[in-house]
Design a protein that fits this description.
globular, 14 strands, binds UDP-4-deoxy-4-formamido-beta-L-arabinopyranose
Amino acid sequence: MAVLITGGTGYIGSHTIVELLGAGQDIVAMDNFSNSKPAVLDRIREITGKKIRFYRVDMLDKPGMEAVFRENNIDSCIHFAALKAVGESVARPLLYYKNNVTGTINLLELIAEYGVKRFVFSSSATVYGKPPSVPIREDFPLSPVNPYGQTKLMIEQILADLSASDSGMSVVILRYFNPVGAHKSGRLGEDPRGIPSNLMPYITQVAGGKLPYLPVYGNDYNTHDGTGVRDYIHILDLAGAHLSALDYTERVRGVEYFNIGTGRGYSVFDIIRAYEKTTGKRIPYQIAPRRPGDVDECYADPGKANRLLGWRAKYDIEDMCRDADRWQSMYPQGFED
Ligand code: WQD
């Protein structure tokens, strides 16, 4: 029996595959390489010594995606594949609704047709929008403020309705906070196209001399030092949460939601200081205007995942900075084309 990983050559998908292979799982992966590269498959094999069955297929190509199910004995799925750039989703909402929502419906129709009953979904803290307070619990209001977050919330609703229609389904929805860092080998990491929009890959490129300074988007937020506070979680902790979620789908039916974060918030200045202390590298910065849509503070109450999944983040902010820096230093151009 195999686990299907959609978006398997992406940042989170690839790190999760490495952990699943280490746990002895049999993996089938698919990706359309819209935001990743084939070289990731070589790295997974170098790290684990194992090959995986891989299909280059787009979720919007339902007949092509059906071959994945027809040719393999799939009994569970972890669904990562999605477009995830907030700014792009505002500029091109139909692209996001078509790719993320229609693509997921195509996938779920095949999941149902082939009797796959265990499903883990990659959701996001973006579904909370601007939270009324922090830390954020799973029962907080869901009010996404951009089309990307709306697609994640729509898919959560589709999964809840699907689960209600089939008592044999087990669905776990993981709402990620801010994934950062890289595999300890330095051979896998975050490889954004063009100028990074997220904080940590921007910092690693400043540290590596690819970018001259970090723009700090606003220092007048209602936080301890005026810069935005987020819950950064090591990618290896996030990958581990998926193994715990997959185990959970073996034990429990129905749909369950979990915030996956450390429960600690760090500001932009905190991250700059931690990075400089950990790596000895300077991160020059300049205060820039606020970025539209950014919230003051966003960090998780991970208590439910700690209790019900038996999962807890174990890496600290220094690990995140050290491992991100190692990846950037070893592969300053990211994965080769
Ligand atoms: C973090 C903080 C910025 C870059 C996004 C998505 C979210 C999720 C994770 C998918 C903020 C500040 C950033 C920079 C800066 N992705 N910043 N200079 O916005 O919390 O979340 O990524 O699920 O959906 O919204 O992460 O890393 O972009 O920003 O000052 O060059 O760093 O203002 O306070 P964010 P981020």
